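Posted in: Protein Modeling Q&A

I'm a second-year student putting together a small comparison for a lab meeting, and my supervisor asked me to include a predicted structure for Phenylalanine--tRNA ligase, mitochondrial. I've never done this before, so apologies if this is the wrong subforum. The sequence is pasted below exactly as I got it from our records. If anyone can share the structure token output, I'd also love a short note on what stands out.
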Amino acid sequence: MIVLKRFYTRSILRHIRYPYRTNATTTQRKPDPFNIEYDPIKQAVIYPSELIIQNKKYPTDSWTNVNGHILSRIGQNLHQQKNHPLYHLTNRLRQHFYQYYDPRKLSPKFSIIDDLRPIVTTEQNFDSICIPADHVSRTKTMNYYINKSTLLRAHTSAHQVDLIRSGLNAFLCIGDVYRRDSIDPTHYPVFHQCEGVQLFNKEELFIENRNVRGDKDYLQIFGSNEHRDATKQEGHTLEAVKLVEASLKKTITDLFKNLFPNAATLNSRWVDATFPFTHPSWEYEIEIDGKWYELLGCGIMEHSVLENSGLSKDHIGWAFGLGLERIAMIMYGIPDIRLFWSNDSGFLSQFAFDDSTRAVRYKPISVYPQCINDLSMWMGKTIIDPSDFHDLVRAIGGDLIEQVVLIDEFYSAKKQRHSQTYRIIYRSMDRTLTKEEINMVHKDIESHCKQQFGVEIR
Ligand code: FA5
Ligand code: MG
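Accepted answer (user: helix_wrangler)
Welcome! Here is the predicted structure, written out as tokens:
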């Protein structure tokens, strides 16, 4: 696990192209469809004054840090592509949640929204859900900004407030999300999330109580002397919080029983967590072959999020956000998150069926060898933030990069310089890479590191 050294964050100059055709043995540059260029003399990425994304124009500024490789993923909507594993999982989520019925509305309780564009404002992604102005999750190091006020959503929680404002009180929101995250078999800079939200008013929450006692006002959601502590927010009564917690945990447990019918053999646990938009909060993990995998984050919605949504003091609710790829990888035995982006018919044909509940295990088409190259550098004026390095490597090597790990870091008092060594593991999903090809990509990474970070290769 790489510990990001946030205090070393520097202004980011990044190489922006995805220049290698992965199916050719000779490397060729593709023209950048977004007109993003790298100027080797100024040693800077040159953005056009506006970016045109899905026919909409966005002005660029000093916050712009998207790249062509990432922008090309917008609109692919893997979860809507028939016969894709994420499409089947989305269908299963839909089928499961449509079982909850609202007898008053004579319709399914949960609305399912899966087509909201991933370009959002900082207000939607952060402010609307109470992420503080100085929170680390807002940094350029962690997000893909189009400009200072517009970014690629980092989570589907960005839509909570808009959807509640539109009148929904129970919904799922499914879509692609974008993060400058570490690179390994379970993390990818673009992945898919499903947000779930359910709100309750007093009558809905205490329905059992009302039926039994015929006394609507016996229990309350809000009390005047309630303080915030580990178990609840200020204002909330413990009995309301405990009922919402029970509803949340039952909803999630029932979902996973449905997704993994032999759940008797599936160990799961709730881990206390912290999110700015829920309190209390948990993560849900399941155990596979002795390893615990985090599948989702969840909790009781912060009351101020509901206030931002225009609700007065009469509702309480839960929310969760789960990662589709993580679940699909376990469900189908898919070993590497990059496979979801594969156009290889050997991969996709394994998911070509209509009944999304069909149990299938992914059979690796073939296994190609890894190619490991280390890169050791003396730092220039500033120390490279690993996420900047990951981004540069991914932008140059594209999907040939399986993993990037910072394996060594030290300070030489004699040289008065910092050193970092990264291990870059190359592997193609669809062919054996030649040493020459990898060396060419590796050399390109080296020379861009020199240009962009002012390092000296050791
Ligand atoms: C969130 O994104 C919160 N918005 C979730 C949430 C929603 C909490 C509502 C409370 C209420 P987190 O960053 O942990 O939390 O991501 C949620 C899930 O997305 C993770 O549990 C994991 O399944 C998945 N995930 C996160 N990062 C990646 C990644 N880089 N690649 C693939 N999946 C990821
Ligand atoms: Mg998490």
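A couple of things worth pointing out for your meeting: The longest strand covers residues 190-201. The pocket of adenosine-5'-[phenylalaninyl-phosphate] (ligand 1) is lined by residues 155, 157, 179, 181, 187-188, 191, 193, 195, 275, 277-278, 281, 294-299, 319-323, 325-326 (CB under 6 Å).
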